Structures are given as structure tokens and as C-alpha cells.
Automatic annotation (TrEMBL):
Assigned EC number: 1.18.1.2
Family to which the UniProt record says this protein belongs: Belongs to the ferredoxin--NADP reductase type 1 family.
Reaction(s) this enzyme catalyzes, per UniProt: 2 reduced [2Fe-2S]-[ferredoxin] + NADP(+) + H(+) = 2 oxidized [2Fe-2S]-[ferredoxin] + NADPH
Cofactor: FAD
GO molecular function list: ferredoxin-NADP+ reductase activity; nucleotide binding
Origin: domain of life: Bacteria
Pfam short name (any one): NAD_binding_1
SUPFAM superfamilies: Ferredoxin reductase-like, C-terminal NADP-linked domain (SSF52343), Riboflavin synthase domain-like (SSF63380)
Biological processes annotated in GO: cellular response to oxidative stress; heme catabolic process
Record keywords, A-Z: FAD, Flavoprotein, NADP, Nucleotide-binding, Oxidoreductase
Presence of the UniProt keyword NADP in the record: yes
Name of the featured protein: ferredoxin--NADP(+) reductase
């Protein structure tokens, strides 16, 4: 189960009233991009912890998590109030299957995220692995409001570094926003609008798809892709879709 480390906060980033990133220094063991850790605080004599994906690549420090504040939750509001120099607890077990090492061979990599599930994809995209394996990478990030579109500078750096090999499709579902798709990811796939925007067809013959985020999106996208012949990827039954549910 690993051991708990008491670590120091390096920086807190407030994206909006309910969306934060927390950076901290911690001697974590080697991990794979896309994996997660358990982060916690001692509250009323009890250690309360939750799993959070690491946004930083394995070679980057400090470590970083990206999270929504759940107003009635015991942990996230307190994490959001931490400032540099404060301490928190991080478990040394780093785990998770949303990694490139587990993905089968593919020509095109499609990444679909909702909300803070963008985090593990940024960790992956900051490594060499996806670019060594795929000709093109498509990242589609769906949020409710434009203010939830975080990490814009990181995405611009990826676009600058990889040029036409990288396509980013922002999706904002509850308001109009310039340049963003105004329909949910499953609808955007069913209508063909996402593929039209990137100039690439999502096909079973040459694609691998990673889905990370809320259960509704994941189930609906899998249904759309099933009709195209794509199926869940498993160790004993190779397929086209890797999944990690956030809630």
C-alpha cells in the first residue's frame, strides 16, 4: 500500500472559483505518465485521502495535481486553501492503467477528456512516447464553461512543438465560446464534427482511443465507437479503447 509522506506545497494555482492545481515537492518513486497518487490531509484526527492523477511528466518536478472543489466535500476545499509552505500527505504508491505502455499499436491516437481528466493526458503528451508511436495525436477536452479550459499555455506549447501532428479540440457545452465545439463529445463524434475539425477519420483500422472522465461520456463514446467496430482494449483481448473513469 506504500507509505505516507508529509510533503510541502510549492504552489497553488486557482483557475477559477472551483478549479485548482496544486504543486508539491515529494520524493515519489518512478512512475509512468498518466498514473495517479493518493493525496490527503489529517482532518479531525482522521487521514482523508483521494486519488488524483499527476499532471507532470515523470521527469518533471514539482509534482502536480488538478482538481475540482466539491463544496460539501471534506478534502478538496481544504486542498484549495493550501499555500506555499503548507504540508499535505502523499502516498508513495503511484498506479493506474491510463498509460502509453498499455496501449496497442496504432497510427493515430485520440484522447477524450472531461473536466480535470485532462490531467493525465497532459502528463502523457509531455513525454516522447505518444509522438514516437503515432503519426498524429488528437486531444479533445470537454468542459461546461469556457473558464474551465485550463492549461492553455501547456497546450500552446504542445502545438508549437509538434505542429500539424497535434490537434486540440476544445468543447464547451453550456455556453458559446469562439473556436470551441458546442456539443458534447459523443454528439460531436456521432455527427462527425470532431473529425471534420481535425481532418482525420476515427477508424478501427488505425486508431487507439483513450477515454478519461465522467462515466456518462465514457459509456456514450464507447457506444458510438462500437458501431464503428472499435472495442475495449484488454490484456487478454486486444482492442482499440482504453478507459479510466473519474466518477
Amino acid at each position: 500500500m506504500g507509505e505516507w509522506l508529509e510533503v510541502t506545497v510549492a504552489e497553488t494555482v486557482r483557475w477559477n472559483d472551483g478549479l485548482y492545481s496544486l504543486r508539491f515537492d515529494a520524493p515519489l518513486p518512478a512512475f509512468k505518465a498518466g498514473q495517479f497518487v493518493r493525496v490527503g490531509l489529517d482532518i479531525d484526527g482522521e487521514r482523508v485521502a483521494r486519488p488524483y492523477s499527476l499532471v507532470n511528466a515523470p521527469t518533471e518536478t514539482p509534482h502536480e495535481i488538478y482538481f475540482n472543489v466539491v463544496p460539501e466535500g471534506p478534502l478538496s476545499p481544504r486542498l484549495a486553501r493550501l499555500v506555499p509552505g503548507d504540508t499535505l500527505f502523499v502516498n508513495t504508491t503511484v498506479t493506474g492503467t491510463m498509460t502509453m505502455e498499455r496501449a496497442p499499436e496504432h497510427r493515430y491516437l485520440w484522447l477524450f477528456a472531461t473536466g480535470t481528466a485532462l490531467g493525465p493526458f497532459l502528463s502523457i503528451l509531455k513525454t516522447d512516447a505518444p509522438w514516437a508511436r503515432a503519426e498524429r495525436v488528437v486531444l479533445c477536452h470537454s468542459v461546461r464553461r469556457a473558464s474551465d479550459l485550463a492549461y492553455g499555455e501547456t497546450i500552446r506549447q504542445l502545438q508549437s512543438r509538434h505542429g500539424d501532428r497535434f490537434a486540440f479540440v476544445p468543447v464547451v457545452t453550456r455556453e458559446d465560446h469562439p473556436g470551441a465545439l458546442h456539443e458534447r463529445i459523443p454528439a460531436g463524434l456521432a455527427s462527425g464534427e470532431i473529425e471534420k475539425r481535425v481532418g482525420l477519420e476515427l477508424r478501427a483500422e488505425d486508431a487507439h482511443v483513450m477515454l478519461c472522465g465522467n462515466s456518462d461520456m465514457i459509456e456514450a463514446v464507447q457506444q458510438v465507437l462500437k458501431e464503428r467496430g472499435l472495442r475495449r482494449h484488454r490484456r487478454r483481448e486486444p482492442g482499440h479503447i482504453t478507459v479510466e473513469k473519474y466518477h
